[in-house]
Write a structure and sequence with these properties.
114 residues, two-stranded antiparallel ribbon, alpha+beta, 15% helix, single chain, 26% strand, Amphi-Trp domain-containing protein, 1 helix, two-stranded antiparallel sheet, globular
Length: 114
């Protein structure tokens, strides 16, 4: 299961595609926290030093498909160290007496017969 999936499909001019790739290249060059303007919104990413890349080109059916895929590990979530505080002693319960013949846990029967 994926933690997050974002996909955007739209038509671009050659210049718009170049601008989008340039923004991605700038974010990759700087590394760290990057923000990419994706038209209706902004995508924030943390980009590490080392990446895995795949480049795929498919030609067929009168089209050329170029896929550039970049992968990297997400930063591991570090557990907050548990605090080892001395166990507090539970307060003692007062001994309250009940009338003879009655138990605290006894319930009255309210069932009716037809």
């Amino acid at each position: 299961m994926k933690d997050l999936t974002f996909e955007q499909k739209r038509s671009l001019s050659r210049h718009e595609a170049a601008d989008q790739l340039t923004a991605l290249a700038d974010a990759l060059r700087e590394g760290g926290d990057a923000e990419l303007d994706l038209g209706p919104g902004t995508l924030g990413l943390r980009i590490p030093e080392d990446l895995h890349s795949e480049l795929e080109v498919e030609i067929g059916g009168g089209e050329i498909e170029l896929e550039i895929e970049l992968k990297w590990k997400t930063a591991p979530v570090q557990a907050t160290p548990s605090r080892t505080e001395p166990h507090a002693e539970k307060p003692k319960r007062k001994n309250t007496r009940t009338p003879a013949g009655r138990s605290r846990s006894a319930k009255k029967s309210t069932a009716k017969t037809a």
